[in-house]
């Protein structure tokens, strides 16, 4: 059941969670259970479709690669990770509208590539199109491999001068950009590394998540923790499991640094 709760937390938007809450509080226990089961089935179906689509894209990409290889010429050339990153950089440097854009990109790659492989305009066009067909996870994997290679070749990632304390302007707006999978992993690791009794805990956690402030990390923690709490309690209530919500309130208030009693009104009827 906890695996299903994780799926609901990761997949549902806030509006969907609110609709689920309303469904649970405005119907019978059996009706609430049916609403949860239906939502889980829809998510599982969505995951299945995404998996099938990703597999289909991979098969298509493999066929295209085999076709270009059998055809010989520029399309049969290998594309190491370094050249893929160089291509991505060149495409950004020379946007649409640049005169003889693809010839310029090919010349740029031939000038800066360390592989010794010469590219033509046709080569870079075909590869750019194939990259556009990749799903976000494959693109993230390419970027991660390039970053790992950079760290391996250049040592640790450059850090800010520890002699000068970093400034965090607590009054500035929160970073509203979506959290990436990598940022979430860094946050979770930092939460484990710096337990509750660690002095200046949230400052240290924020320092471990590049690009995110103390408030960003605290808000992310509260939102996700509270979402898990609500869904866990809602599902437990629907499935007739016993949960001592009132006993947990003091601990939850302390950990979340906010009042959770109002949510009890939503959960129990």
UniProtKB/TrEMBL annotation:
Residues 171-225 form the Myb-like domain. Residues 174-229 form the SANT domain. GO terms for molecular function: Hsp70 protein binding; ribosome binding. Residues 51-79, 157-177 are annotated as: Disordered. SUPFAM superfamilies: Homeodomain-like. The keyword Transmembrane applies. One of its GO terms (biological process) is regulation of translational fidelity. The chain crosses the membrane at residues 225-249. InterPro entries: Homeodomain-like_sf, Myb_dom, SANT/Myb, SANT_dom, Zuotin/DnaJC2. One of its GO terms (cellular component) is cytosol. The keyword Transmembrane applies. Keywords: Chaperone, Membrane, Nucleus, Repeat, Transmembrane, Transmembrane helix. Residues 171-229 form the HTH myb-type domain. This is DNJC1 protein.
């Amino acid at each position: 059941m906890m695996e299903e709760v994780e799926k609901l937390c990761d997949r549902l938007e806030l509006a969907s969670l609110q609709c689920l809450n309303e469904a649970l509080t405005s119907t019978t226990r059996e009706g609430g259970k049916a609403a949860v089961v239906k939502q889980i089935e829809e998510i599982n179906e969505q995951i299945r479709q995404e998996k099938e689509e990703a597999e289909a894209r991979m098969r298509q990409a493999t066929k295209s690669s085999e076709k270009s290889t059998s055809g010989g010429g520029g399309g049969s050339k290998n594309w190491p990770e370094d050249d893929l990153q160089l291509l991505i950089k060149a495409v950004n440097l020379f946007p649409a509208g640049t005169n003889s854009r693809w010839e310029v990109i090919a010349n740029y790659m031939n000038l800066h590539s360390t592989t010794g492989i010469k590219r033509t305009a046709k080569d870079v066009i075909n590869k750019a199109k194939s990259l556009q067909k990749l799903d976000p996870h494959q693109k993230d994997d390419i970027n991660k491999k390039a970053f790992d290679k950079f760290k391996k070749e250049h040592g640790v990632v450059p850090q800010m001068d520890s002699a000068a304390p970093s400034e965090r302007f607590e009054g500035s707006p929160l970073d509203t950009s979506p959290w990436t999978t990598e940022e979430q992993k860094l946050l979770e690791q930092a939460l484990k590394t710096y337990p509750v009794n660690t002095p200046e805990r949230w400052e240290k956690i924020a320092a471990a998540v590049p690009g995110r402030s103390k408030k960003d990390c605290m808000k992310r923690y509260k939102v996700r923790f509270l979402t898990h709490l609500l869904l866990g309690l809602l599902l437990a209530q629907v499935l007739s499991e016993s949960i001592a919500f009132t006993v947990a309130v003091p601990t939850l208030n302390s950990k979340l640094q906010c009042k959770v009693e109002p949510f009890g009104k939503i959960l129990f009827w």
